[in-house]
Amino acid sequence: MTDLDPGLNLPRWKRVWLGIDSRTRLRERRGRTSRRCKPGQRGNDSARFFREWLRNPVATAAVAPSGDALVALITREIGGWTGPVLELGPGTGVFTRALIARGVEERNLTLVERNPAFAQLLRERHPHASILVADAGELQTAIGADVSPFGAVVCGLGLRNMKPALIEAILSGAFARMRPGAAFYLFTYGRRCSVPGEILDRLGLHARRIGIAYRNLPPASVFRLTRS
Hints:
Blueprint: H1 12-17, H2 23-29, H3 41-55, H4 57-60, H5 68-75, E1 85-88, H6 94-101, E2 109-112, H7 116-125, E3 130-132, H8 139-142, E4 150-155, H9 164-176, E5 178-188, H10 197-203, E6 205-213, E7 220-227
C-alpha cells in the first residue's frame, strides 16, 4: 500500500486523524494549494508516518506529522540569529521546514533521525543539512567533537514512551553540546512536562511551558528547558 486511499469509507474524525482530510488536502481539492508544502506532500507524509507507526509504534510514537499550530509554537523563539540548531527525531521534517522558513540556514541544521526511511527522505529534501542516522541517547558519540555548539535544540521525540534513563541520556547529551543559555524545546500531549522532575533536578534544568497548541490533533503543550 503506497498511500492512504482518499476514497476509503471512514468516519470524518478518523479521516482527519489519519491525515486524509487535513485542512491542506481540503484546500488542495478546492484548487488552493498550501504555500507551506508542495501539493500532496502533507498527505504523503501522513501516509509515511502511519506506515512507520504500524511497523514500529513505540519508536515512531505518532501516527501523523505535527500540525501547523504546534509547528509554529515550538519554533517561534528560533531564527537565523540562533546559529546552529539540533533537531531530534525530525521525522518527515515539518519542524525542519519551519526552522528554515524562520531563517535558520540549512547548513546550520543537524538532524538526528533513527528511522532510516525518514533519514533518506530528509537527505533528499535538505541536502545541505547534516543528517545522522543515530539514537538520540548517544549524542555524545554521534555528533563529532568539531561541530559548533548549538544555539537551540528542537525535540520531536515521544519522551513519555521512554524509560527515565534514556530521557536523561538524551538531555545530558544535548546540553553538553549546547551553548550557555541555549534552550531545549519539546512538546507533549499532556499539560505536565514529559521530563520527570527528578531528572530535571539532577541535571540542573528548569522547565517552563511556553504555550499550548489547541488546534493540534491532539492538543499539545510546548516546554522550554534551560540550565538553571
